[in-house]
Structure formats: structure tokens, C-alpha cells
Fold each of these.
Amino acid sequence: MYVLDDNGVKAECVVTDEGDGVLEIKNIAVVPECHGLGYGRALLDFVARTCKGRYSVLQVGTGDSPLTIPFYEKCGFVRSHRIEHFFTDHYDHPIIECGVRLVDMIVLRKEL
Ligand SMILES: CC(C)(COP(=O)(O)OP(=O)(O)OC[C@H]1O[C@@H](n2cnc3c(N)ncnc32)[C@H](O)[C@@H]1OP(=O)(O)O)[C@@H](O)C(=O)NCCC(=O)NCCS
């Protein structure tokens, strides 16, 4: 788990080793009052710099949502594949973002 501290905790994420040189970002979150200030990008860049050379790919899975996909794309991730029905199969309640129910998980990847 990585925590970004800038006069107090501003962001965190968990990074898991998925095997075959692939690392996965889980549960990245920035303190709500601090969205849009660059903390999310700084945390992803830090993880990429820290793990470069030991791993080949950084990946993340997210819903097909305008709240998250553009953020990852701005940070250099590209869409890799989709896991169909992930959110409907694994959660016991609907997850709605921007008025749309999340169904598939979109996996994005960035070469390290
Ligand atoms: C998604 C999240 C981590 C982004 O962190 P952030 O600190 O707000 O993002 P940054 O300020 O580092 O943004 C980096 C770039 O992405 C862009 N961006 C961020 N969110 C965006 C959005 N919803 N739509 C379009 N662009 C977005 C920023 O404008 C910035 O681009 P720029 O450098 O060209 O200006 C943050 O919004 C968050 O914690 N959300 C709630 C939890 C969550 O959804 N986590 C993701 C789970 S998959």
C-alpha cells in the first residue's frame, strides 16, 4: 500500500503482484476535497517509477465510467480488454456512476 502525504494524507492505493511481470493498482483514492490537483497522477507516476525495471506492466481495472477512464488515459494507460459482467456478478447491489449502471470491468495497461 502506498500513501501520498503532503501536509497530511492526500491519496492512497494498493498495488498487487499479478504474476508474469504485471502489477495491478487497486482502490486508488484521493481525498475528495483534493480531486483535480494532481495527487492521483503523482501517486501513479511514483508507483511506475518505483517498480520500473522489476515489472513490465502496470494495470488497473475500473468501471466504464467517465469518472475514472479519462483519468487513467491522461496518466498514460490504454484500454487492454474487458471482463464482462464483472460488476453485476461480483456485487450484491447495483453500482451507478454518472447515472449509468456499471456492468463490465475495463482493464487498462501501461508499459513500465
Ligand atoms: C480518480 C481519482 C483517483 C483521480 O485523482 P485526481 O487526483 O483527482 O486526478 P489528477 O488531478 O491527478 O488528474 C490527472 C489528470 O486526469 C484528469 N482527470 C481526472 N479525473 C478526470 C475525469 N473524471 N474526467 C476527465 N479528466 C479527469 C485531470 O484533469 C488531469 O489531467 P491534466 O493533467 O490534463 O489536467 C480521484 O478522482 C478519486 O479519488 N476518485 C474517487 C475514487 C475512485 O473513483 N477511484 C478509482 C477507482 S477505479
Amino acid sequence: MTEDTSRVDVTSGISGRASAARDLIALLTPLANLDEGPVSSRQSDGNPPFSERCRILSAIESLLLALVPDQPLYAAFHDGKVHDPLGGGAYAFREDLVGPLLAALVHDEDLSADGDSISRPKAPDALDIPNRPIVIHAGAQPNNSPHCGTLIVFCYAFAVAQAIRDRMHAMAAGAKVAFQPPPVRVEITFVDTAPVSGEGLEINGVHYQRSYRDTPGAATAWTGDYHEVLTLLSRWSGVPFTTAVQSDFFSNAAMPQLLDYLITNRHTLGRQLSPKHGTLALRAACPVPGCGLAEKHGRLNQYDTTPPPSTTTTITFYCPHHGPHTLALSNASPPAVTRRLEANAPTRNLLRSMAHLLDTTRHHIRVTGADYAGSYQETMLYRPLAEWAAATGLGRGRTPHILYAPLVVDWSGAKLSKSLYVREGGYDGMELLGTEGLASWRVLRDAEGEEGLRRVWGEVGRWVGDPRRVFRCFSVEYLRRVVVEGRGWEG
Ligand SMILES: [Zn+2]
């Protein structure tokens, strides 16, 4: 009975496809013979009438749907007209993105780490140029070859660094007294504490993960692709770059002090940073050789703090195979201790911004995807930062500098997701539609060589040159023509 039903479906699919193909052929045949066909079927300009064009489009849609019946394709026709409408950020920053950013950095130099006003050494001619070196930060999880969303974030970071450097040099060149602007570089931090797919487990509703750095071979499987991209962008922009991993991040000199604040306020911060579990997602991998499991959300962590003056906090972590293990923290903890720690994305985000605000020797600008803009940052970053500044006086009067790179979205407006791509079958259609190179640098490079990245770099450079364009999304269809085919859109 089951076999019969199956055969009927297949037959129906095939006959449906044949019927759709015949309909389209019937409409196309007169078009193919336009130069010979009867004059009555054409308009005076030689084009088929409007109603006929509509029927042709409809027939193309029908054929696409029936082409592979068990995986229908939907046509997405458009007129190819590109608009960059104003509104919100596009309106506010349409003339200039770099100038307001530099002014904000100069403003920071008038404040100490605890928000007091200080007298900074002024540049000659009162130039609005910062004195401190500028670092443009971006991050990446090295769990596959970078897709075009990641390439765009990297290109944006280098393009902004280049624009800042060039603007400062232009300003300095106009000064009466020689002045050397500060250096600008890009720093990419790899989240090598992200979970490796298939290495985690769940016991009684508690999740455990094994991270890239604790899984032999995993962390290095894709990092070569990232370095390849970064080296090219650095060469084209003339902006140097450095890379870091999570142990570098947790070795920051301010980390013991910041962790102390987070742990002391863990009940409030846990609810803010992890609405689902209400706990601070601090982790440390099990130290037993070959294990490396870490409890993902910090739900089983125990915190014990000795009273002042010698305040030490012991965090007891839990491994499902080897039981508890501890890490003792104090304000004098060396990097060798704190570098073992890991945190989830919102906790890293907060710690990073706090550390950047406390640094009065360098400026830090973060570049990240626009999916983090809005409520995410307001809830998980700015509110905790405001509370921290009010409670401790640290970072008072200052906020992080963050630029959001345009999202790459699919036909429905959803962002092109790396994790969906990594999951088998997530974007099967991209290969069929010729857009697979947008989902993997390795595929793009094999097809187009470094020219594929050069096209992304050129496109992002256009956005930075006309900042209306960084306050919108770009579709896979748009980028297919620009990046895969090497042709631009009129706009
Ligand atoms: Zn273990």
C-alpha cells in the first residue's frame, strides 16, 4: 500500500513538471521566433505585451516549483534597482562615520578610568586627533571556513581602521606643527572556547561542552583560512593586525578585579546575562588529562568567598565524569590562574567592554554583526555597565565604541547563519543557486581565488565611503552578483 502511494506521488510530480515545462515552452516559443512571428503578438516596441510577460513569469515560477518536486525552488524576481534609504543611523551618519568616532575617542582622553576630568596633552593646533593608539577589534569562532558575514565583519574592521588612519593623517598634514597621529591596528580574537559539535553531552538537563582548545586538532582545522583572509586584508589596507585567543583575553591585567565584581554581583548579573538560567556562565574545563569537559551555563558552580582583608573566591566547577574541581581567585591572581576561565558570549561581551573602558593607554573600537545591535546590547551590556559605573565609579562617563556590520540575509530576511550552514543540509539550495561561495571562503577561494575576497573588500569599502550603506542589510541575491559573479549593481 505504501509503495503504491509513493509511486502515485512520484508520477504526479513528474507529470506536474512536464505540464509546467509544456506551459512555459508554449509561452516561450513565440518569443524565440519574435523576429518571424505575427506582428499582432507584439507591442510596437517589439516586446511581448504586459499580460504575456506576467504569464511567462508565472510559468517560470510554476516550473521551478515542479523542477525537483521534493525540494521546490521559489523564484525571487526583482528589478535590480538598489536603494539606500535614509532613516535612523543612515540619516544621522550619512555624511560621516569617522569624524564622530574620532571626536568620541578624543572625549575619552579627557576622562580618567574612574570618570574624573583630566587634562590631556593636546595635539598642536588643538587638532581633534586622539593621542592613544587605536585598536579595532573583531571576533570569530573558528568552526568552519569564514562565510561572507564574517568576511564582511573583517573587511569592515580593516576598512574602518584604514579610514581612521587616513583621516588622522589628513588632519595632521593640515596642521602648522608636525604631529604624528597614533598607530591603528586590527585585533581578531578567536573564540576557541566555543563548543565543538558532537563533543558535548546533557545529563539531567545540564549541558556540558568540550571546547575547540580542549579538542585536539579542532582549533587549528580552520584557523589557516582565517589567517589567509586577514593577511590579504592587511596587505590591501596597509593596516597591521594581531590575533588573540580566549586565554589572552582572560590574562588581561584588569581581569581579577572585574571577575571579583561579577562574582560578587552574580545573582543580579546572572539574571541579566542569562535570562534562561539566571546564572553567571563562567566555566573552566575539567583538568583531568583527556577530559576537558566544562559545564556550559555555570549552573552547578559554587562560589565561596573568604571575608576581607584577604578576599579570595574559590569557584568549584563540576565535571560529570570526575566530580568537582576548584579555582581560587583573588585581586592578585596571576594570568596563569585567570586564563583557565571561559565565559559565554554575553559575559565575554561585558568583561571585554569593562576592560576596554579601564584601559587609559589605548582606544578600543569593537566591530561586530548587526544582529547584536539594539535590545541585546542595551539589556546585556549597557545596563550592567551603567550599574557597574554607579557602584564602583569605574568607567564613569564612558561607553564602549561599537560599530555594527551589515547583516547578510537570505530571501526571508533571516541572517545567513554559519551554524545552520555547518549543520548538514542547512543551505543545500545555495549550491544549486550558485551562491555556495558566500557560505564558505574556501569554496569562494577555490572558484575565484583571492579576487573573491577582493570583491567583498571593494564592496565594504563603498559602504564605508557612503555610510548610509552600513545601516542596512544586504541579501544573498545582492552579494551573489557582486561577489560570486564579480559584477556590481547600479545604485
Ligand atoms: Zn572530567
